[in-house]
Amino acid sequence: MEKFQVLLVEDNPDDEFLALRALRKQGIDNIVVAHDGEEALARLLGPGSPGGGGEILEPAFILLDLKLPKINGIEVLTALRGNVRTKQVPVIVISSSREETDLKCCRELDVLSCLTKPVDGKEIVGILEKAGLFDIHPS
After folding, report:
1. Whose CA is closest to 61, among 24, 8, 100, 22?
2. Is residue 50 part of a domain?
3. What tens digit of pLDDT does each residue of 64-97 get?
4. Model-level pTM greater than 0.90?
């Protein structure tokens, strides 16, 4: 699964560790981490985005925390959906927030799912399989 790249956008080191471990247990190990919304947009949209530059990522999917420094997750998601190249990139929101306004925004911005932290790798794989994005069954 070397070519299957994932972008994890998470500012909390403990949650990052748990998410990385959960994904790796499912055989997903090509994971790039952004620690705030500005870094995520720079990695996804490149020059011209806040903090833009460097290699532009084209992940198979994005795990996105909502409560991020600099640019929050909803703003990141809005920017992604407004860009022709990233409009269709699958996003799974991971957050400790269960605020109805956040969940409503996520639904309107066409996320695959909204999950509560900590991340469960099997649940993520199940969501991806259901969406037809993950066809390797982990052992």
Report:
1. 8
2. yes
3. 999 999 999 999 999 999 999 899 999 999 988 7
4. no
What spatial distance separates the first Cα and last Cα of the chain, rounded to whole Å?
A: 13
The whole domain housing 101 covers 5-130
Query: Please, are residues 4 and 28 in contact by the beta-carbon 8 Å criterion?
Result: yes
Question: Is 115 a member of any domain?
Answer: yes
136 in a structural domain: no
Residue 58 lies in a domain: yes
Check which CATH number belongs to the domain holding 11 and give it: 3.40.50.2300
Give me the DSSP letters along 119-132: P-HHHHHHHHHHTT
CA distance 120 to 139: 16
